[in-house]
Amino acid sequence: MRWPGAALIAGEMRGHPLRTLIGILAIAAGVAMGYAVQLINRAAAGELSATVNALMGNADIELRGPRAGFDEALYPRIARLPEVAAASPVVEVDARVVGRDASLKLLGVDVFRAGYVTPNLVGRLAQTDRADRTKGMNVATGTNVTKGTTGTRLDLLDPDTVFLSPAALTWLALKPGDSLTVQVGLAPVTLRIAGVLPASGDAVRVGVMDIGAAQWRLQRLGTLHRIDLKLKPGVDAEAFARSIAPRLPAGVAAVTPGDNAHRTSMLSRAYRANLDVLALVALFTGAFLVFTMQALAVLRRRAQFALLRAIGVTQRGVLWLVVSEGAILGVLGAATGLAIGFALAAAVLRYGGGDLGGGYFEGVQPRVHFDAMPAAVFFALGVAASVLGSLAPALEAARARPARALKAGDEEAPAARLRTRRTVTAALVAIGAGLVAALLPPVAGLPIFGYLAIALLLLGGVLAMPAVARAVFAVLPRSNHALPQLVLAQLANAPGRATIGLAGIVTSFSLMTAMAIMVSSFRVAVDDWLQLLLPAPLYLRASPGGDSAFLSSADQAAIAATPGVTRAEFLRVTQISLDARLPPVSLLARPIDPRNPGARLPLTTAPLVPLVARAGDSPPVWISEAAADLYGMHPGQRITLPLAGQRVPFTVAGIWRDYARQFGAIVIDASDYRRLTGDTRVTDAALWLAPGVAPAQAIARLRASVPGGRHLEFAQPGEIRAASLRIFDRSFAVTYLLEAVAVIIGLFGVGASFGAQALARTREFGMLRHIGVMRRQIAVMLAMEGALVALLGVLAGLTLGLSLAMVLVHVVNPQSFHWTMSVHMPWGLLAALASAVVVAAALTALLSSRAAMSVDAVRAVRDDW
Description:
- Strand 7 (about 180-185) and strand 8 form a beta hairpin.
- The protein has four domains: about 1-55 and about 265-405, no CATH class; about 60-255, no CATH class; about 430-535 and about 720-865, no CATH class; about 540-715, no CATH class.
- It is an alpha+beta fold.
- A nine-stranded mixed sheet has the order 17-18-16-19-15-14-20-13-21. The chain has a six-stranded mixed beta barrel with strand order 3-4-9-6-8-7.
- Helix content is about 55%, strand content about 15%.
- The chain is built from 28 helices and 21 strands.
- It is found in: Cell membrane.
- Belongs to the ABC-4 integral membrane protein family. LolC/E subfamily.
- This is ABC transporter permease.
- It is a multi-pass membrane protein.
- One of its GO terms (cellular component) is plasma membrane protein complex.
């Protein structure tokens, strides 16, 4: 006889289309989220890496200095080394574009040297018709070519010209011949666009000037930011980098293309890893939902499988039938998820950029490309999740004894096996292993054991639910009313079906709870942190972005002398490199009272005392938690920092909490910074106003009294906090989306589980109808059962979710981003989510009773006669 498996599977799916659709969507949701995150990050990181490589050109080594630059006298010493075939000096400035809050990267190059090392940075002159070219050649002096005409080769050296990448031209809505105005200090600098760059990546904004012009116009005289080197044939780049390191000034590092690629990937690695794990969590939730639906379907079809066994189908045949159903759900769900994920990634990249809210790829506008390998991986994960969700029900269906399974009332027997001592032991072992994993250190900077701890705790919690449900339902007080008594008796004496439905509820609600607690804790911590860091009533900044704008000594004096300003504290923000393979560390120079540093810094450790430096002592610095973790620093340690080309000793005086800079920040007193570097420029100021002076009055006076004051950016503490929290919410937009997906999957799971339970209990409802119970009463009874089971699932999920949140807050977050925080419970949100789940369960059970009671009462119990 031909095996009718395909027909049985097709009949089951046609007979229960909603259950099939929910299973497909559960798998599709996890696959879509994971694949979209992978495509977006891969496209953004790939584009950024390709652009870095394009800008590095054919260089074998890049000598890269700090944000402030290094002395250009290093260039001739390097260029004369016997291993160097060609050397190209570069000035690199992120210039604020006037009229925009974003910056444009401007590079200054020596076109005669760049042609040998980085030809992509040599501008290509715009061309029109031959008459214009002739005219340009006759009058060419290298400057001020009329708009619409073609320049000459001298435009490459013109101090008033710039060459822009195609992406920059598109972003600025400009074309060759137009003017570009950038802010330097507080003054505007206007440049003429003389042409385009031949190759600079498809989506990154960059402009190139002559190096002398860049040093002059951008006020970087005598300074370089990097030197690109082309080595002679046969010279090993890695060996050369190691040999030259001792001869470089402090803060200048020899960087290979591999180091550049590693540093670029490090920018968003932890962020990408966490998003990938969240996507896998959605897939994990989908697998539990498939398990719930398949387990309940197996219970409902228990007699059908027993009949198949009775007519000769083997245990393996039944096993493959159920697993095949799960595999088909997985294939359809995974294929749907890939399509949705690709469309979602394309939409996000088109309308939201490639940073997924994290801010790691600002200025990058990549395009999505189909990638077969991630597609295959997530397709396989989707199918595997569905198959694994079906495996336990399939084994139970195959092992059932046909004679017993054909009898009515045997549905509770399989679920009873979930409450065995072995299951409880497995649950305890999983929970214990999860607690141990939470104590283990990160692996390669990622909280691998933290993720494992979450998975083990979740598994242990779900395995423990059958025993918990039996214990809870057994001790519930009985009622004198008939309907509540029936409900409690049903749950106490036949809790198996209910505990299967609990798996989906507990899984989804615990994950919802954990993510809600983590996000709420982080948000409250950021808000409290901002309140401590923003004591002044008014703040100003030379520019909202970039490093070309600054406040000179004269500007600072004018600000401090402005009527209505009683006190002004100035801040200098720059960057230094402590490890060439890691992103740079932020250096903040601001006034700090060494006797009370906690007045300006949210310290996590007690400051060292005494902190008043004596003659010959190393000045104090305060490091962020990220700097302490990444570089192994601790209070009392003597460290050296590269300042002004020298290695200067400092003493770590304390650790402070910083939620703005993931790769570390170091605070130094402003007077120490100026004394050691001679740098008097600042970027920000905090202003205290005289009594009766409103911020608006002070802003008007400052704009009038400071030359170039119209370019200053002002903000009050409330505005800064609101803007920062908007950025925070944008950074966690994907987390919110995944949380919403978990909510939807959980509610679908509630509906599927109670619907399947109601259909499986048609004989029970028929018997109740025979003894006089009305349909309305059965519906109320089912709604009460649904609400009680969901309430137990919510309480268990809340307890388990709190444990998962502890791991997220105290393990995953510090190991991923090096930030610590306290736990904050969002009781309002959790109450709303819990109420939604309980109400949804009650309504779903109520609606499912209509289908269960549509069968005639006599027909429903005929199997028992």
